Amino acid sequence: MVQTNLAQAVEAADAASTYDANVKYLLADRQILARILKYAVSEFRHMEIEEIMPGIGPEIEIGERPVDAGLSNLGRIKEGNTEDNVPGEGKIYYDIRFTAYQKQKEMKFLINIEAQKSSDTAKLGYHLENRIIFYLSRMVSAQKQTEFFHSDYDNLKKVRSIWICMDGNRTDGDSIEEISLERKTVFGNRQSTSDIDLIKGIVIHIRNGRNYKTSQNKLISMLEGLLSQIEPEEKKRILSEEYGLVMTTALEGRIQTMCNLSENIIELGMEKGMEKGIEKGIEKGMREGIQKERMDAIERMVKAGASKEQILSYGYTEEEYRKSQESLLFNH
Is the pLDDT of residue 322 over 50? Predict the structure, then answer.
């Protein structure tokens, strides 16, 4: 049976791939993108998924693998350039960027999707809203000489920047927010019917873990099932039976590899630590039992083929990595 790109993405390449990269590959599938558009972007809300997918442009700007023959309406599309470079302003890199056409209204949208681990200002060192506005502004200004020329500003295309934040708490952390322009009269009786929905930021807060009730929002519920640390068979069932995503039995082998890696990195390295209230203890010195658990997690990742950079990116220290290497050599 032919595999869809979604199946290939969920299978997660191999054990050396980072969890972050796997998330982006999953989100960049047409089936996932179509559902994000339907439930997060108001202009697509009344369309069917089957109508939205063909309107997603010929390039999704992430990754390297071209779409399999005959699956152009299901898979991730060919690679593009996610770099935005304005002379004198530096470079930024988008997680996912693509175009989408709302054929009923003959509208073209420029879409950016970001997978964000945290929306906490204290952790980020800045307010996420400001970064979203910056991305939106760059997507508007980049249209000069591409989408419009000279002073034809009415030909600007609408831009949507969608941020999937994976740090919602277990009780009330699932929500969707919109950031948009507002026009109002502060003096006089002037009224305007001008359309000012050129830019809009959308923040989707999902929860990460196991022990929470299913979200009342269909998109959030699907994303939580897609990205959470559940067993491979259960994840496959959720995606296919509950959300209608095209899956194949060929998923079984590689999805197991991805889930094993994500469990080692996230569940052992992060979720257990946070659930036991020891996140701050990473800096102050972990209790002896937790230290051993973290060392065991590092050794599992090393054996699975993860690189030093990948391991350190999940909050482990240089010292912990060094000690795990010594332990592996000593016990070899």
Answer: yes
